[in-house]
Amino acid sequence: MTSNLTLELPNFEGPLDLLLHLIKSQKIDIYDIPIAQITSQYLAYLHEMQRLNLTIAGEYFVMSSMLLRIKSQSLLPQNDFVDEDEPEVDPREELVQQLIQYSVFKKVSTYLKKRNDEVPITAAKEESVPLTKQVNPLPPGQITSAELARTLVVVLQRLKIRQPDAVSVGISEASITEMIEFLHEQLARQQKVSFFACTSQIKSLSDIIGLFLALLELCKKQEIRVEQSRTFGDLELERIDSDGK
Predict the structure, then answer these.
(1) What is the 3-state secondary structure (H, E, C) of 47-109?
(2) pLDDT tens digits, residue range 56-85?
């Protein structure tokens, strides 16, 4: 049987891989391994690997010792003193279990490697905001509501430095009305006024918030135009006359 065996030496991953290759190539039932035949073929592989000066790990020789032990056990005559009712243990059982477990792990490893090769390394993410819902930016020279909010934060931080104590914030319709009148007075004297200059005349946090809300109200009514030259910079309030200038 061994003389008719065609030896191919692929890169086996261990003694069980070589043994499983022999079983599959000979189309042998893994649960009924002809141990003498497999042992001879296994040893023939080791001899061929030694002839080709291939590096053979010690685990291959451990497997060959195991095969020879199983072969010798199967050749020994049955002990007459053994109770006939006691089930006979097949010396190949341990080897069969190892081969089955190795076969399962090898199939799982092959499946995972195939999945890893099929799955792309990077995945594209859909746009968080659809193009139809994206907001068009304002033309140059006009500021956004976010910039207005950041400027208010700067003013509030400056006020907090001057007045570190906690204060209670109360906003009323009367306060906004008063601040609108205050801005009207400022813009009546000059075409443009500084928001920072206006806040410097105010001492309380609630009044600054009222002034900012008054600024928004006048913008809404298109009575003033607001410009900002840089981020977190001052706001320049410009009066819009009835002719739109």
Answers:
(1) HHHHHCCCCCCHHHHHHHHHHHHHHHHHHCCCCCCCCCCCCCCCCCHHHHHHHHHHHHHHHHH
(2) 778 888 888 888 888 888 777 766 665 666
Q: Determine the Cα angle at 114 with ends 29 and 22, to 5°.
A: 25
**pTM for this entry:** 0.41
Helices 173-189 and 205-220, packing angle to 10 deg: 70
Amino acid in the structure at residue 81: F
- One-letter amino acid at 178 equals E
* 196/208 Cα distance (integer angstroms): 10
Decide: helix, strand or coil at residue 13: coil
Residue type at position 195: F
Distances (CA, A) of 125 to 7, 104, 122, 128: 51, 36, 10, 8
Alpha carbon distance 145, 67 (integer Å):
82
Which amino acid is residue 233, in one-letter code?
G
Q: Which residues are registered as beta bridge partners of 239?
A: 224
Q: Give every CB contact of residue 44 below 8 A, 6+ residues apart in sequence.
A: 2, 5, 7
pLDDT of residue 141: 65
Overall average pLDDT of the 177-190 stretch: 90
Residue 236, strand partner residues:
194, 227
Q: Which two tokens stand for residue 93?
A: 């059982």
pLDDT in tens, 8-62: 556 778 888 888 888 888 888 888 888 888 898 888 888 887 777 766 778 888 8
Alpha-carbon gap, residue 37 to 40, rounded angstroms: 5
- For 186, the enclosing helix (H) or strand (E) is helix 173-189
Q: Which H or E run includes 213?
A: helix 205-220
